[in-house]
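Minutes, project check-in

Agenda point 3 was the complex the collaborators sent over. CS summarized: two entities, 432 residues total, and the question is how they sit relative to each other. Sequences were read into the notes so everyone works from the same version.
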Amino acid sequence: MSEARPLASLYDVIERRRDVRAEFTGEPLPDDQLLRILGAAHQAPSVGHSQPWDFILVRDPATRRRFQQHVATERDVFADSLTGERAETFGKIKIEGILESSLGVVVSYDPDRGGPAVLGRHAIADAGLYSTCLAIQNLWLAATAEGLGVGWVSFYREEFLQQLLDIPTTIRPIAWLCVGTVSGLQDTPDLERHRWRSRRPLAEAIHEGSYRAPLR
Amino acid sequence: MSEARPLASLYDVIERRRDVRAEFTGEPLPDDQLLRILGAAHQAPSVGHSQPWDFILVRDPATRRRFQQHVATERDVFADSLTGERAETFGKIKIEGILESSLGVVVSYDPDRGGPAVLGRHAIADAGLYSTCLAIQNLWLAATAEGLGVGWVSFYREEFLQQLLDIPTTIRPIAWLCVGTVSGLQDTPDLERHRWRSRRPLAEAIHEGSYRAPLR
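CS then shared the predicted structure for the full assembly.
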């Protein structure tokens, strides 16, 4: 586990960033810190400068509990699809820190923002979705630089979150991020430590000139 | 225009990052620098640790020229959808630096990577797509920290890129990133400078407890 270094360099932050489940301490987040990480998200690039993201802060314990129960149900759905070693390995893995973290940040995507003619989106309908994810990564890295932890929960149905947080049906919830103070960050990602899946060598991901041509 | 500061802190990099079109100098990229920014991308979080991204390096000028011609056609398609002030404003905006930058990095997404049971994706089919975007933002920020420029081109049809780079039809190209050395980075995003669209105040993007409740 490593300690926080708020003004650390970019590469250092990228390396230390973890998807946090078990390390939240539950202490409240100072407002200035929260505004800095949301500000970092808001500075992300977006297709046609559409800035199609929104951030819904969920502090209310009862709301978080309802979400946590929904996630537990979806965890069971996934567990039921597994057998043998996969089922056993998954059984040990904690998938969320919804109640332990002090805050949920739901990031949503509004396809109508900046429309109807969004510059750079006529040929790729998902481009606005991509922009929203870039904002999420900015938030995640900023939180890491601040010494905070972030955990992305994705065991949920979008319709459930729309109803829970009164999100219009035209707007998609993209992520529930558990955000909070942490005791530290793991050196190795949870899914590697628990042998769910190992790291792919970088060289395998690089291709030269065409998809079928490996790195020279 | 601001100068490069390779070991700058995260917030500084997030603020300086720009979507570059006109500032590429065309000089070749040192291999160690390229590997560092790809390594940063490869350290992104991914659903179920699936690491579903790939990076196709496109240096060949003839291939880049073919892509540039396709993009010019799609630019015309978008321009034809505009009228009045929008058409006039768009006419002044440069949308790509495909030939001026020394390298194209195409980032693709493989939905079959780590399957069939990808942890965290059973309820949200797009979750792997989101992971790929997080990798793109890591790359973009790392390039900015290195003093390089990145420009995301999205005026293209996915099928065209699949054919151009021999990408299997099951794998989606998510971005063509122009990457290269730059004379500097603009202080203000191009689409703001050219009055295509202005910045949304951060406070408007923050909601408290539900989507319909503004920031308190």
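Noted in discussion: The CA atoms of residues 187 and 193 of chain B lie 9 Å apart.
Follow-up: revisit at the next meeting once the mutant set is ready.
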